[in-house]
Structures are given as C-alpha cells and as structure tokens.
TrEMBL record:
Gene3D superfamilies: 3.40.50.970
Molecular functions per Gene Ontology: phosphonopyruvate decarboxylase activity; thiamine pyrophosphate binding
Protein known as: Phosphonopyruvate decarboxylase
Domain Thiamine pyrophosphate enzyme N-terminal TPP-binding as annotated: residue spans: 8-116
Domain of life: Bacteria
Matches recorded under NCBIfam families: Ppyr-DeCO2ase
Domain Thiamine pyrophosphate enzyme TPP-binding: 203-335
Annotated PANTHER family: SULFOPYRUVATE DECARBOXYLASE (PTHR42818:SF1), SULFOPYRUVATE DECARBOXYLASE SUBUNIT ALPHA (PTHR42818)
GO BP annotations, alphabetical order: organic phosphonate biosynthetic process
UniProt gene name: aepY
Lineage: Bacteria, Pseudomonadati, Campylobacterota, Epsilonproteobacteria, Campylobacterales
Amino acid sequence: MINSLEFADFLNDKFSFFAGVPDSLLKSLNNALELKSKNNFFVTANEGQAIAFASAYNLSTSKIALVYMQNSGLGNAINPLLSLADPKVYKIPLIMFIGLRGGKDDEPQHLKQGEVTKKILQACGIKSFFLSQNIKKAKEQIDKAIQECNLKKQIIAFLIKKNTFDNFKTIREKNNFKIIREEAISLIQDYFNHSKFIATTGMIARECYELRKIKKQTHANDFLVVGSMGYASSLAFIISKYSKKHIVCLDGDGAFIMHMGSILNFKNSNFLHIVLNNQAHDSVGGQFTHAKNASFSKLSKACGYNYSFSVKTMKDLKNKLEIIKKLNGLIFLEIKVKQQTRKDLLRPKDILMLKEEFCKEL
C-alpha cells in the first residue's frame, strides 16, 4: 500500500497540475494532492473538462498534467481524448489516473465498466498499466511514463485498484447549512407519496432506498439511477412526458453541474426537479463542487423553469412543499443541506427487480 502523502509530494514535483472528477478509490491521494497542490488542483464539472484543462495546461506551458477520474467517467473523457489530445490531432501528452471499479464484489453499475475499461483504452490507442502498490515501483512507473509521454507526445493511463493508497484525510471547511439530507428526502416522499421518483447516483439514491425500507413502503415508486451521474434529470424529463404519474427528480449538486446544459431541453415540461445541494462530492472524499459559485434558483429560472425556489431550513422547506403541491409545470427546488451521511446506509442490489417494479403503473 502506498503512503498517500509521500506519493502526493512526489507527484506534485513531477506535474504541478491536476484536474479531474473525484473517485472513492483515489480519495486519499486526492486529499493529499489537494493539500500539497492547492491552486493547481482542480475539481472539474466532468471528465471531459478535465482533459480540456490538462490540454490547455500543456499548450500554455509545454508541461504534462495529471488527470484523475473513476473508470465510470471514461466515456465523458473519450471525445476530447480522441479529437483534441490524440497523437493524430494535436499530440498533447498527458497522464491519467483511473480508479478501477468493477471487481466481483462491486456494485452492479460498475461491473460492465470494470470488464471493459482496459479494452476501451486499448481501442483508443492509449497505453494503460496497473499502478504498483509498492511506492518505489510506482514512482519508477511514473518517471518512465513521463519520459515516454514527452518523447512520443502520447497519452498514458494508470489503472488504480482498490486499497492502493493508505487512508489520508484532510480537514475542509464545511458548509453551515442546517438541513439533514435524509430528513429532507423523507419529508419529500411524504408530501408526494403518489409520485414517481428518479433518484440520482450516490448517497441520494441509497437514502431514498433505505427510507422506503424504514417506512415499510414499496420501492415501486423509485427509479434509482445507481450509475450515469448527471443524467437523472434527463430521465425524469422524458418519463414525465410519457407517464400518467407526477414525476419528482432528486438530484445532487455535483450531478446537476456535471451535465448542466441538459436543463435547457426541459422547458414547457411538467415535473419537480429537486437539487439537494451540500456543495461537495460527499461520497468520494468531500471535495467542493463549485456549487457556491452560482445561484441554482436564478439559473434554472433563466433556463425556462416556470417556478424556482431555494430553501435552507426545514420550516421553509415545508412551506415551499405546500406551495409546490398546488403548482403545475416545470418546478425547481434547491435544498441546501449539511455534509452529513449515515455510515450504515444500505446499497440496493437487485436493481433489475426494482426497475420492473418501477415500470408498473408508470
């Protein structure tokens, strides 16, 4: 196992520029890199933007950047990898750290991605290696890759297995919001008990799932978007057009930001789009999402939503839910929530059965 802080020092000397989307397998290393690199450590909206950032850094400085991501985000990165950085286009060298989810005991949404990650990279002409869990060998791998990238102007990817880095935590200033996300979701379920819910990937879907079990309710009203980060609202939009039921989308700030341009399609539709905003990638390390740089309620209103609300207390949430129940059209509700998650949350397993239940009486 690699000492995260020592390896971060080494990487900071070699690269000085890091961009990507947080991943649970890279959490400790990212914490250490963020501490060491500060102004040169970027959390991007999506993986494609990270490739663009790394390419721009190389164009500006002739230096190589390191891009980090989970293998589930590789699809977002492929377009700029092949049409911008590829040796047949602009020959922009860069190195990628890709968290390799998809082991035999992993979650269903990671299994296929884990099977094909190395094949996808191979099809793209990108050399890939498993990063050694021995720090001396890992440093040697990085040195060799940098030399090859500089010489051949190519892209090299390192696949990071589970437990490659030791545990390293950093202290970040958390938001001062009061609402606990799980309590907000529970309240929303109660207010819209006849609606169909589309719940985004990560803790929000898991909390939605667990709350149904606690309340001894069926899962038939919930579609858990266990993967496909950033697409829950697009699913909700189309489902709202073909379903007889009222549709509620439970989104997160990181997922909302990842494909924010999607909301321009939603004008003149009829569903409730709720963003539970804790300003952080809470489930993969707590890195900030840059949500504090914008007003989501003003943004949604400018993009064609009929009504837009933002709340930060449970009292205000209850008042707004009473108002929203009487409204029709495209409605946006931002709920500012604490960075707080129970550690014993269940993970849904039989997702095909859950899908079949959801599709009944849709």
